[in-house]
Amino acid sequence: MEIKIYAPVDCEILSIDKCSDSTFSQKLLGDGFLVKPKMGNFSLPFDEANVVMVFDTKHAYGFDIEGLGILIHCGLETVNLNGEPFKTLLEPNQKIIKGKKIFDVDLKLLKDKKISSETPIVFDKKITINNFKEGNYKKGDLVCTVTFVKEKAELKNEIPKLNSFESKYLVAAKQFIQNVGGFENFSDVYNCMTRLRFKINDKSKVSIKEISQNELVKGTV
């Protein structure tokens, strides 16, 4: 399947490996693009998409196009601003089209607080990027296309018993707590869209090897 990518705002668009955040530049969350906005009025950069997630601090947005998940993450460490520079009317389960405003961001506030406005756009499946050139774009300009292969639904040979079923996220949470040394070995834990953060008391009790083996983990710092 082929998807057209448009500039979401007046900006410079670079390869994702130019991002100053290694989580994105190393493609731990997937391949994509790096947007350096010149204005703060972001619109949908695809012909159409379904809104699947609006993060509570309004700095990150998830979309779905025919089974391809897409994350637009405005700014680096903007989660710490608790939504202050962002405004949006988007809600999950909306279907929106190209040009629909997705959010506004106060770029001056980010600059004053010395927070990067770099905005990664990443895809959760293997994609091929076609005819992309780094450079400056006006909002709505066609940037390139991406193609991906839609996955066929796989039949499960075994159906889990409902009374013993736990989601992979609950299972992972239990494993992470054990792998960081238990409840007594961290004083705080919180997350943003791309990271789960623990404030560790004794790093020698943390098993990075065990944590890294979890299917949800793309990397550790």
What do these coordinates show?
- It is a single chain.
- This protein is mainly beta.
- The protein has four helices and 16 strands.
- Strand 6 (60-65) and strand 7 (68-73) form a beta hairpin.
- The radius of gyration is 19 Å and the shape is globular.
- The two termini are 35 Å apart.
Read across the widest sheet, the strand sequence of neighbours is 9-5-6-7-11-3-2-13
Determine Rg (CA atoms, Å). Answer: 19 Å
In terms of DSSP E residues, the strand content is 25-35%
Structural class: mainly beta
User: How would you characterize the largest beta sheet?
Assistant: 8 strands, antiparallel
Number of strands: 16
Q: Which overall shape is indicated by the principal axes computed on the Cα atoms? A: globular
Pick out the low-confidence regions. 154-167
Approximately how much helix is present in the residues?
Answer: 10-25%
Briefly say what this structure is.
The protein has 221 residues and is mostly beta strands. The radius of gyration is 19 Å and the shape is globular.
Itemize the secondary structure elements and their pairings.
Layout: E1 2-6, E2 11-15, H1 22-25, E3 32-37, E4 41-43, E5 48-54, E6 60-65, E7 68-73, E8 86-87, E9 95-97, E10 101-105, H2 107-112, E11 119-123, E12 128-130, E13 135-137, E14 142-147, H3 168-179, E15 186-191, E16 196-200, H4 208-212
Antiparallel strand pairs: 1-14, 2-3, 2-13, 3-11, 4-10, 5-6, 5-9, 6-7, 7-11, 8-10, 12-14, 15-16
